[in-house]
Design brief:
Helix content is 72%, strand content 0%. It has 107 residues and is mainly α. It has one domain. Helix 1 (4-19) runs antiparallel to helix 2, helix 1 (4-19) packs parallel to helix 3 and helix 2 runs antiparallel to helix 3 (71-104). The termini are far apart.
C-alpha cells in the first residue's frame, strides 16, 4: 500500500544516492559501492509503488461507482496517486537535466 510516506521514502532514497553517488553503483558493475543497493533497484521499487498506488485508486473508483465505497476513500486514493506521479515526474526531470548536463561536457 503506497502513501505520501512512500513518495517521501522515494525522495529520501534519491537524496541518499545524490549525497553518496557511489551508493548508486551496483555490485555487478565492479566499480565500487559495497552497499548492495543499485539505482536500478531503487527506481524499480519506486515505479512498482506508483503502479500499486494507481491500481488502488482504480479499485476505489470502481467501488465508488458500484456503491461499495465512500467519497473520502476515493479522494484519498486519488490524492496518493497524484503525489506518487508528481514524485516520478520530479525524478524524471532530474534525470533529464543530468543527462543534458553530461551531454554538454567537453570530451
Amino acid at each position: 500500500m503506497s502513501s505520501p510516506l512512500a513518495a517521501a521514502g522515494a525522495y529520501a532514497n534519491i537524496a541518499r544516492i545524490t549525497a553518496d553517488p557511489s551508493a548508486a553503483v551496483g555490485p555487478s558493475t565492479g566499480l565500487g559501492g559495497s552497499s548492495g543497493t543499485s539505482f536500478t533497484s531503487v527506481l524499480k521499487e519506486a515505479m512498482d509503488a506508483v503502479h500499486e498506488t494507481g491500481r488502488k485508486s482504480d479499485t476505489q473508483s470502481r467501488a465508488m461507482v458500484n456503491g461499495n465505497s465512500n467519497m473520502v476513500d476515493v479522494v484519498t486514493a486519488v490524492a496518493e496517486t497524484e503525489v506518487a506521479i508528481d514524485a516520478v515526474v520530479a525524478v524524471r526531470d532530474k534525470v533529464i537535466a543530468a543527462y543534458e548536463e553530461i551531454m554538454r561536457m567537453p570530451i
